[in-house]
Amino acid sequence: MTHPTFGDDPRLDAIHAATRALCAPGAPFETVAATVLGEEVEVFADRPRTLRQMLESASAFGDAECYVFSDGRRVTFGQLPGRVASVMSLMADSYGLGRGSRIAIAAANCPEWIVAFWAATAMGAEVVAMNGWWTGPEMGHALTLTEPDLVLLDEKRAERLGTTSRPTAMIGPTWYGGDPDRPLPPPEPVGEDDPALAIFTSGTTGRPKAAVLSHRGVIGYLWLQKFMGARSAALAPPATGTRRPMVRLAPYPLFHVSGLSMMVGSVMTGSKTVWPLGRFDPAAAVDLTLAEGVNAWGGGSAHVARLLDAPGLDRLPPDQLMSVTVGGSATSPDIIRRVGERFPHLTGTMTTGYGSTETGGLATWAPNWMLAVAPDCVGPPIPTVSIRITDDGGEPLPDGLEGNVEIRSPYTMLGYCGQPEATEEAVRPGRWVRSGDFGRMEEGVLFIVSRRRDLIIRGGENVYPFEIEYRICEHPAVEEAAVFGVDDATFGQTVKAVVVTALGADLTPEEVRIFCSETLAYYKVPDTVEVRTEPLPRNASGKVMKHVLAGTGTSGFSDEEG
């Protein structure tokens, strides 16, 4: 693969200039030096300090709708604090919970999940966001790791879990009893770096770990997104006409960082989010888009791909959507192409962000023009975030050399709950967090080569699945692809590709190999190609579970939320 650079591109200079202007003294996103958990870092000077502070601002948006669910239930900004205050009272009076408690939530997306989150964090408790798709044993493992003081369950999750030694309660609308105008109780002395959320990492291999995020970390993820919106607006041509309020489709599960960010971001920005319930149905999502005036689609790559193929999509007015974004997984060239074909006014607007739960959710940002030049580029670091590339011993590497991607910011995780050894491995001296990705820096821009654990070594040659997957997906008959290593007695590993064809397309394994050989070295051409029509198995964040394809694990994929 040719490695283009952007150092002499005036568009990159414009990004840096807009960043400096927005972060200058007195500017909306002014940055200042601060000591966070013993390390000197940059922070935004003007920022909310706690989630309680964000909640208190919700009433300023009055009777506007905040959360809308596909079953017709609605919560306005004005209603939210009173409902949260009622649940805070219940948690304190009936269960003795307060600052420093740990409350697990295991339920499908619903208004009660959201209110429980706000109630727990507003009193200084830590939320454990349980994966709603887990089996009983998986839930039991998570409870053993986190040892919550209370587990909130809906009926389906309670049935799966069975008996447990942890205190439990059923989550439900009866929590909203009492005075709907109940004021929030006096605030607890919660600090920015107190734990707010334990959220389980993707678990594409092995058992998931619970990354603990602080109030600063949860809010920082949203503040960085707010900055990116301001910078994009500064770089865009002057807008014409009246800008419509943003109404976002929210198909993510609430136990995933993308779903949580949409939930908290709604309160931060005063924008409505619309939540499809149950198994994700793209046709129903189009109906919901029309009924609720949704003008921003977001989701994992699988969500967006299915929306673009949804029956009845032609009923959507061509200019209703103001943006389409992919979260939780990479924005593929195929998705970028298809969005532009279906919505020509959005051509050139797709972007990609890079980060992980452990590294604060967002570390870099690449606009469409960068992705068009180099699909493996994820952009320059965003303000308050530092990135370095290191060898396996932790020594920094110079520009252009590939190694471990390490990230430091005020928002990185506090550690893994109940797993000090895993924390020590991931959080390096100086609070540099090793992302698990393999990449390089060139002129201040980050390129991702591969997940470190996905690296294939074939006959002594390093093979990066990312590069091969992008080549395969350039074929017009391909919908998606996954590449991984297979043990081999001769070469150590050989390369296998699992290829999903587009609807109605015919493709043979040999055609895939010939197509790859046109641009890739011989040792990168897949030795084995499996062609299929069913989608690749994905986890909650939309990442392909290659261990399932390789036959070393069972599929946890589902788009069921009920």
Radius of gyration: 23 Å
Largest sheet: 7 strands, mixed
Task: Please work out how many helical segments DSSP would assign.
Answer: 16
Distance between the termini: 43 Å
Mean pLDDT: 88
**What CATH first level of the domain at 51-214 would be assigned?**
Alpha Beta
CATH topology (fold) name of the domain at 51-214: Rossmann fold
- Mind telling me the CATH superfamily name of the domain at 51-214? ANL, N-terminal domain
Which stretches of 5+ consecutive residues score pLDDT under 50? 553-561
Polypeptide structure, described:
Among the domains are: 51-214, ANL, N-terminal domain (Rossmann fold, 3-Layer(aba) Sandwich), CATH 3.40.50; 455-549, GMP Synthetase, Chain A, domain 3. The longest helix has 21 residues, at 215-235. With 562 residues, the chain is an alpha/beta fold. Helix 1 (10-23) crosses helix 7 (215-235), helix 3 crosses helix 4 and helix 9 crosses helix 10 (301-308). The two termini are 43 Å apart. The protein has a seven-stranded mixed sheet, with helices on both faces. Strands 17, 18, 19, 21, 22 and 23 form a six-stranded antiparallel sheet that branches. Helix 6 links the parallel strand 7 and strand 8. The protein is built from 16 helices and 28 strands.
